[in-house]
Amino acid sequence: LYAEAVEEAHQRGDQDSADRAFCNRCSVLVELDRGADQIPKLKEILLRSSNTRNRFHAAYCTAVAYDVSGESDKAQGYADRAAGFADELGDAVSASRSLNLVGNLSIRASNFAEAESAFCKSLEAHKELDGHHRMTEAQVRDNLGYVMMCTDRLLDGIELCESARSELERIGADHYLYETLQDLCYGHLLADNLDRARECGEK
Question: What is the pTM of this model?
């Protein structure tokens, strides 16, 4: 459907809509692990387009495509650019998504201070959003909790992750729950709460 939208926009001579549809199509291809081949076209949009929202989508998709391909250093640069475009847009959804990505990539590079800053800003952006974004907010809270566990603030980290777990269970987002339970297993293990660690690990 997105490919059809690209074609329809080209036929109407609407380059911005074509670029937007192409970026949406790339989001799907990235999830299917077929996004790396689209990176050159995404970079073209990023350089050519004067539409800030399309530039955001192009930068974000490029970052995720590089991340999935295991090129975290390249992914970090494009995630930072996406966060900059989100800031220009003043769009809380785009800001929260891109900052969460910046934080996750920073964790992989063991840049915990940068990760914490990104997750805190992402949570701040979530304050402007309605209840439809509770799941992603819980994920960011879990990510921040993990950073705290890794930086000697174990109990605060566990508290954040438990809060995220409770919210994910409440809204039935079981397909995202395993990562939070894994973080809790790790945190409770460090805190010598072995029964709780085992419970989270088994669950």
Answer: 0.90
